[in-house]
Amino acid sequence: MTPKLPESIVYPSISIAMATYNGEKYLEEQLDSILSQSLLPSEIIVCDDQSTDGTQEILDKYQQKGLLKYFVNDNRLGFIGNFKRAVSLTSTDNYIALSDQDDIWLPGKIQAAADLLLKIEESQRPAMVYSDLIFVDEDKNLLNQSFRNELGQGDYNHCLDTLLFGCFVNGCTMLMNPNMRNYFSSIPENASLNHDTWMSLIAYTFGDVAVVPDSLIWYRKHRDNATDVGNFHKLGRLSRLWAEVRQSFKKNDLFEDQISFVTEFYHTFEHNLNAEQKKLIQKFLKLKGKSYLEKKIALRVFFRGNWK
């Protein structure tokens, strides 16, 4: 049972690590939503990956007011490298929240995440919490009250077994304690996926992790998203069946990117995993090169007992 917080809560100092690149269209609205939080961060650190629009002018305006610190990379670092640099520049002992440049944080986002993180974390252990998102278009029209439901990720339990087949955590919803943020530098910059998956694997293998029950961010769908949200939709049973039939006649690349990513994670942390975790991950990695049907059967085996 999760312990209750004391009536008088002493919140830790929280840093926001933001990565920007040509984000002038939505950046001010995002920054203003962070600066309107019920629990304010102690610092906002922004790394800009050599934007060519008005992003740096906006950041300079906020910096002149003492609201944030921003740094322009000497060379283009890319999405993951930019986030890694931003996190590295935050205060070492602070809790870390990651921020994209184009979302809108609801006023209680930081406080709700901090409340839950304080409940679950244990001394010297990495800990992370995350939440669902409200899915909107670029004009803030509602697409789905739950981004998890949009992807069908609310239908099963979030655990290592199901995480291996695809990430259900969005980095912009994460709040990490200092022990968790220490793993951020281990993220491979040549990964085919992003930091969301790597840190989620860390949390579900070495740490304590929990889900805030509410959606805490307005998550925009637009053509310039750093992550692809363009084709996400939840399929009905017949649509899923027809999609599987069509896929079975195509090149068998099902889960291949995920297998490559988990392989890199396994090689990095093999000696830190316990026997049960090794066995589970090795079982998943044996799917490399298997047929489409074998992979689908394996998915159902891994998800057995995890459907809600």
Q: If you compute it from the alpha carbons, what radius of gyration comes out, rounded to the nearest whole angstrom?
A: 20 Å
- Fold-level CATH name of the largest domain: Spore Coat Polysaccharide Biosynthesis Protein SpsA, Chain A
Which structural category fits the helices and strands? Answer: alpha/beta
Q: Which of globular, elongated, flat, extended, rod-shaped describes the shape?
A: globular
Total individual domains: 2
The low-confidence runs, each spanning 5 or more residues with pLDDT under 50, are: 228-238
The CATH architecture of the largest domain is Alpha-Beta Complex
Sheet with most strands:
9 strands, mixed
Q: What average pLDDT do the residues reach?
A: 89
Number of helices: 12
What's the quick description here?
With 308 residues, the protein is α/β, with parallel strands linked by helices.
Overview of the structural elements:
With 308 residues, the chain is α/β, with parallel strands linked by helices. The protein has two domains: 14-221, Spore Coat Polysaccharide Biosynthesis Protein SpsA, Chain A (Alpha-Beta Complex); 237-303. Helices cover 37% and strands 18% of the residues. It is built from twelve helices and nine strands. The chain has helices spanning 27-34, 55-64, 78-88, 109-120, 147-151, 160-163, 178-181, 195-206, 237-248, 256-269, 275-285, 292-303, and strands spanning 14-20, 43-48, 69-72, 95-99, 104-105, 127-137, 142-144, 175-176, 208-221. Strands 1, 2, 3, 4, 5, 6, 7, 8 and 9 form a nine-stranded mixed sheet that branches. α10 (256-269) runs antiparallel to α11. The chain is globular. Residues 228-238 have low confidence and may be disordered.
